[in-house]
Each structure stands twice: as structure tokens, then as C-alpha cells.
Amino acid sequence: MRTLIPLKSIYTFVAVAETGSMTNASDVLNVSHSAVSQAIKSLENQLGQPLFRRIGRHVELNSQGKRYYKKVAPALEQIVDASEALQKPIHSNRVTLNMINSLAVHWWIPRMMSFQETAPNLDVRVSNLVGPFNLENEGVDVALIHGLKDEWQDYYCEKLGDDEMVMVCNPELVSSNTTAESLLKTYPAIYASNDRRKNDWGYWCQEHQLPIPKRRNNLSFVVSVHAVQAAISKLGIFVTHRQFVKDDIKLGLLVEVGKPVKHPSQSFYFACQPDKLKLESVLTLRSWLRKEFA
Q: Is the distance from CB of 108 to CB of 244 less than 8 angstroms?
């Protein structure tokens, strides 16, 4: 039968290794200095070799100790994380929801009142991380994805809706017989030039069999929010994602011209770690998102 190392000894070893002092480790673990010293001595006896070098009142890992630490410290962290996860109440009312900034400004904030009416006891905290990332490491419970499902294969990932691109402009720029083609000949195009948006005009024009408009000075914006505001201010016409301007169109700040174009490679998704689906708060949020994207 394999000889098992007491978990208390591993806790103590990691604490001493990370603090460089048995006295500091005793403070971290809230035990006596002698208890720390005895635990380290017992561990070294079990392993049959020393793990530390004593330098005055301080200690540091020797070569064997460094190798041992590299193996056990990550394992101990996993044990702590797993224990904390089980201790979290399944009915916790706080959810961290991640979405890109444009979606937060143009889609989430206008719907916050509706969500609060549906789930008045939930406290949703919004973060704005961009691109694929580790949900657990970033402290995110749910990600509202505007992108590719393939980038989130390690998670539960559910499609909420297609990503439709639309041409929009200020209502004052159109008349009853205005077409997308006539707008392109009359007004300059507004561009969102970040990597996620740089091909939007190309996709839309290809579907409509129209030439891609030239870029004009002062009408390229890194952030979509600024480009939308430029369109509202009658500076030109803009191709963007319907979900970003849905409420601006409803309020009469913008008008949609021509047929929408389904984005060829990205959609909207709900993503979370599978075990998060045990949380009532996450299920409530998912149900509400489904209705909003229906």
C-alpha cells in the first residue's frame, strides 16, 4: 500500500516555501512555530531527504524542494479551488457576465430594467474582456459571446442567435425611394477599424454585389460605439451588427436601409462552465437571454 503524505504537511510545506520563513508560515496557517517546524521535519523524514536550506532565521528550497514544490503547489491549488467551489451556495444571487463593450453599451444597458423586472434578486456584474479567455481564471460565470463557437469548445456553449449586419444612417438622410446603392453614392462610409469589425463592409457589400466604399479621413473609429454615434450625427452611413443598433433604430435615431446580411462566420452564444448550470442564478440569466434573442 502506498504511503500517503498528510495533507497538513503539504499545506505547511507550501506555506514555508512561499513565505521563506517558518515564523511567517505559522502566521499564515494560524498555528505555532513549533507545529510548522514539526510538520516540515515529519515531511522530510517521510520523503527521506531534506527540502530546505536553513539560512539564519529564513529558509529556502533546495534543489529537491524546488522539484517537489513544482509538483505539489499546483495540485494543492486545485484542491483549494475545488473545495471553495463546493462551498459556494447553489442559490448565490451574484453573476459575473462578460460581453464586449459595444454589446454592453448598445444592448445590455438598454435592457437592464427589463432584466431587473424578470430577476429582481439577481446581481449581475458586467466585465468586458475581449476574445477567448479562461472563464474560471478571470472570475467570469457566464460569457455572452459574439464570435465563433469553436473558440469555446471547453465550455457549455449554446447558440442564442445569428449575427445580422445592417446598413444604418440618420433618418434625415433617406427618403421614400432611397436605396443602399444611392446612399453609397451620396454619403461617405463610416468604418469600425478594429480587428473584429474591419471586414463588416466587405461581407455586406459582397452579399449585395456592391463595391466596397473608400475610406474617408476622420471617419474610421477603433470602437464601434463611436462609429454608431457618428452615424447618428449624420456624418455618413455605417454597416454594423443589428443587435448593436436595435434600440437606436427603435428610438428613431437610426434607420435601416437594404436587406440585412447574416455574418458568415460568427453568431451570438451563451457560454459557461458546465457545473455553473447547477446554479439557479445562471439558469435564470440563460432563460432571459434566450427570450431576448428569440
A: no
CB atoms within 10 A of CB 123: 11
- pTM here is 0.63
Q: Are 199 and 253 in contact (CB under 8 A)?
A: no
The answer to whether the beta carbons of residues 258 and 164 sit under 8 Å apart is no
Mean pLDDT of 80-86: 75
- What is the C-alpha to C-alpha distance for residues 194 and 101, in angstroms, rounded to an integer? 13
d(CA 40, CA 240): 62
Residue bearing cell 454615434:
229
Q: pLDDT tens digit string along 192-234?
A: 888 778 889 999 999 999 999 988 888 899 888 899 999 999 9
Q: What is the amino acid identity at position 19?
A: T
Q: d(Cα 205, Cα 271) in Å, to the nearest integer?
A: 31
Burial group, residue 70, by CB count within 10 angstroms (0-12, 13-18, 19+): exposed
